[in-house]
């Protein structure tokens, strides 16, 4: 029985991509991958991925259908959304039970762009932001340690009246 697309509920078809059978939606070009399939595709050559991207051209309907929750085509649980590479606009939908992954077909080229961008050297402005974030993180760490020490000393004073330092 074919799996239903989490995005549009169209029955997905199996397509062979470099020895990996993928569930592909013929309507929206979405792809359902198991964790093993994803690992196999990650190890492919970049040219092979470009060929795969070119073969997955679905019809993208621009009508707004409202907010929807995508369901796993394997076990019908709600999928979790994550941003690809943490800060990209590309959303990846994953199943916490079976480890499956759903990617909208039109997002494949965007994923490649974000991946390539993530491997470019940082600009001077980005380096300054990283340096500032590091400084802020270190400062917050120092403040948290001070709060913990203050809490420990307050606890000691509360339970040992008259205690100050090492001598009573």
Explain this structure to me?
By secondary structure, this protein is α+β, with helices and mostly antiparallel strands. The protein folds into 2 domains: 13-118, no CATH class; 122-159. Helices cover 39% and strands 14% of the residues. It contains 4 helices and 6 strands, in the order E-E-E-H-H-E-E-E-H-H. The protein has a 6-stranded antiparallel β-sheet with strand order 1-2-3-6-5-4. Strand 2 and strand 3 (31-33) form a beta hairpin. The longest helix has 36 residues, at 124-159. It starts with 12 loop residues before the first strand and ends in a 9-residue tail after the last helix.
Spell out the blueprint of helices and strands.
Elements (H helix, E strand, L loop, with lengths): L12 E5 L2 E5 L6 E3 L1 H8 L3 H10 L24 E4 L7 E4 L6 E3 L3 H12 L5 H36 L9
Antiparallel strand pairs: 1-2, 2-3, 3-6, 4-5, 5-6
Main traits of this protein?
168 residues, alpha+beta, 2 domains, 6-stranded antiparallel beta sheet, 4 helices, 6 strands, 39% helix, elongated
